[in-house]
Amino acid sequence: MKIRVLIADDNSFIREGMKIILNTFGEFEVLATVNDGQEAVDYCRINEVDVALLDVRMPNMNGVEATKILTEETGTKPLILTTFDDDEYILDAIRYGAKGYLLKNNDPERIRDAIKSVHSGNNVLQDVVLDKLKSVMDGLPAAQGKRTEAGAPQKHGGARQAGVQEAGGKGASATAGSAAGRGTAGASAASAAQAKGGPSSDCPFDRSVFTERELEVMSLIAQGLSNKEISKELFISEGTTANYITSILNKTALSHRTQIAIYYLTGKVR
């Protein structure tokens, strides 16, 4: 069965171009293309849409506002696809339930993979998102108002896909981001020190709730590693890694590993 997709963008060239691209893969059915967030919400309220690709800046209702309503009122999974990486949009999109946040300058294959991953219940985040969250932990203003436009060069690695262990025991795979993105910003070093039991006066949450192994897993999630990479790093099976993630989710009352990364870096659960 094909994945039913809605495309919302106020640029007709981008809307129709994205529709053509997705239809070439044969895995998607583009149900409609709309001009703004309000039209996207109206359509998804009366039609069964699996994934909605939402631009951020649109008239009447932007993509972040539409994300909030779609998450609360429909079964549609919002995936933000935009030319901008503004801090306010990233944080709000995650807070309101976006299942992914990608820049439009990704390759068509990466966008295809992101849609499939979101449809499967995973979360997909651009490298820049976790980098900004790391800078928040360091107390630095993320991005200094900088924007990344479509067509601008990207670091190798593109998007990070975060897999979640479902309650039914179904494991989800993940695609790693760039090695450079994982090792940058002082938060990585601080995270690693905390996870290995090292002292840190900046830890934003109560570590006593978690085992040392759970803290290690949380640290590696915050660095953007997939379940497979975490297993390799810690010399444990992927099933064991998934079990640790499930335990962490239960202890924090969080619902997916993107929230674990945010919690580990900021101490915030929402």
UniProtKB/TrEMBL annotation:
It holds the Pfam family Response_reg. It comes from the Bacteria. It comes from Paenibacillus rhizosphaerae. Residues 142-180 are annotated as: Disordered. Coiled coil: none annotated. SUPFAM superfamilies: C-terminal effector domain of the bipartite response regulators, CheY-like. One of its GO terms (biological process) is phosphorelay signal transduction system. Residues 4-119 form the Response regulatory domain. The keyword Phosphoprotein applies. One of its GO terms (molecular function) is DNA binding. This is DNA-binding NarL/FixJ family response regulator. Gene3D superfamilies: 3.40.50.2300, Winged helix-like DNA-binding domain superfamily/Winged helix DNA-binding domain (1.10.10.10). Transmembrane segments: none annotated. Keywords: DNA-binding, Phosphoprotein, Transcription, Transcription regulation, Two-component regulatory system. The modification 4-aspartylphosphate is found at D55. Residues 203-268 form the HTH luxR-type domain.
